Amino acid sequence: MPYFAAYKVAGTNLVDNVCYAAQQDVPVITAFLFSTENWNREAQEVASVFKAFEEILYEHTPTFIEYGVRVGTIGDTLGLPDNIRNAIEHTVRRTSAGTASDFVMAFNYGGRWDIVNAVKRLQKDDLNTLTEEAFADLICTAPFGDPDLLIRTGGEQRVSNFMMWQLAYTELYFSKLMWPDFHAKDLEHALQDYAERNRRLGST
């Protein structure tokens, strides 16, 4: 399948899963759409990612509004091409009144970038009194809190530079399904698996 068609299918499936999660009262859904390392892929694939998600955002903004999903972003969006940045700004603006769930798109994001960016925001005088809580407030996901569950599809069992600070006590769920084949019923299974876990958070 050509790159554009593949990413269009994957993105449309993402919208379906986000709306299902909103119906299940999941407060925040974050998707790792384009990493800081993905620029190393061939130019045609990179362009296809941006073109596919540009179309998806314009096409599905009404869907997000219908389901009460407020769309936001994390990552260095200023480094993105104008077409995808304009599409992101359009959807973020149009969905700002959503109250059911936050859908956070990680575009041009990397966990190490996030930490370095937070360090750059520190003042020199803050270093001696710095706490984990204060540093967490500098991470770009601060408004949303740390994730409770990470779902990794495609048979991979690594976090791939995603939220390196935030995943300290996140539950991990791995699926052999490729993302375009990971549907609402599979998300339901992942959420049920998470609900049955005993999260001790280091207490025992």
> What is the CATH homology-level superfamily?
Decaprenyl diphosphate synthase-like
Report the CATH topology name: Undecaprenyl pyrophosphate synthetase
Order of SSEs, N→C?
A: HEHEHEHHEEH
* Unreliable sequence segments: none
Shape type: globular
Sheet with the most strands: spatial strand order = 1-3-2
| Integer tally of domains | 1
DSSP strand (E) fraction?
15-25%
Structure, explained:
- With 204 residues, this protein is an alpha/beta fold.
- The chain has a single domain (3-185), classed as 3-Layer(aba) Sandwich (Undecaprenyl pyrophosphate synthetase).
- Helix content is 42%, strand content 15%.
- The chain is built from six helices and five strands, in the order αβαβαβααββα.
- It has helices at 3-23, 43-66, 82-94, 111-120, 132-136, 184-195, and strands spanning 28-35, 69-74, 101-109, 149-152, 171-174.
- It has a three-stranded parallel beta sheet, sandwiched between helices. It has a two-stranded parallel sheet with strand order 4-5.
- Helix 2 runs parallel beside helix 3.
- It is globular and about 50 Å long.
- The N and C termini lie far apart (48 Å).
